[in-house]
Amino acid sequence: MRHVISAKAFDRDALLGLLAEAARMQVALGRGGLRTQDGKVMAALFFEPSTRTRLSFEAAMLRLGGQVISTENAREFSSAIKGETLEDTIRVVAGYADVIVLRHHEVGAAARAARVSRVPILSAGDGAGEHPTQALLDLYTVWREVGRVEDLTVALVGDLLYGRTVHSLVYVLSRFSGIRLLCVAPDVTPLPADVREYAAAHGVRVEVEPDLHKAAQVADVVYQTRVQKERFASAADYERARGQYIVDRGLLSAMRADSIVMHPLPRAGEVAPDVDDDPRAAYFRQTHYGVPVRMALLERSLQAQVAGEPVWSESAEVQ
Ligand code: NCD
Fold first, then answer.
1. Where are the domains of the chain?
2. pLDDT of residue 98
């Protein structure tokens, strides 16, 4: 089954294939979209807030000719509040939809959902764990904007500990050669050891660079992130991390003309608004790339066979 749970599941060929497929989807979008998923239903089950991820998944399904059912605050407005387990919710929703997009506050939730689901689960983020589809659209952004996904210096900036988009992006970049990662993080939010070790084991040069200016001078991509306030156990640690690294016009002047600034968004002060007008500010274009990439992912998953007995039979007979 074509679940999308971890960015680690995509090898180099799968990633290159997905980039090409997303590029085809982008062309199709320019022509008004496709009708390949006519009659198919996507359920968006979001236990954590989201703007971009949910709406771009929904837009992607609609642009494929499919339809969408959605709960945007499943933590309060689904039966989770009555004590229903995630597994039971998934078993139920899998009878209503052909694919489920799930965002949840617990690490490992998407994998748990996949174990009981008869339809593909696409993770839209599991706590501070991973955000695989964001990493795929981030890779697509790099490919389109920088022109290659190999031989890259990427400065990862901000909350590398709780920032799930960073973890998945590191896994994806690890599949390519000539990757150098400069980790520019407050001391309370370093890149987790397991993520760092994974990258190193795949031949990535991972360096700690506390000086954002120095990193920006050599980077092809400055990947800025929000300090994930909601995930800190200690308010004092959050205060220490917040506001330490800011992308502003001064930093842009240190960056090369052919480099870009990315951010998964939302931003909370770490990219100054007057950066937006610079052509190197790629973060709004990055949000738009979410649609063709998620169209490609939905197509890939909806080709998969459903597991187990059909929910609906073609016969109207009463058993
Ligand atoms: C991110 C997320 O939810 O992990 N947003 C997104 O999906 N684009 C980043 C964040 O919340 O800071």
1. 7-129+289-307, 132-287
2. 97
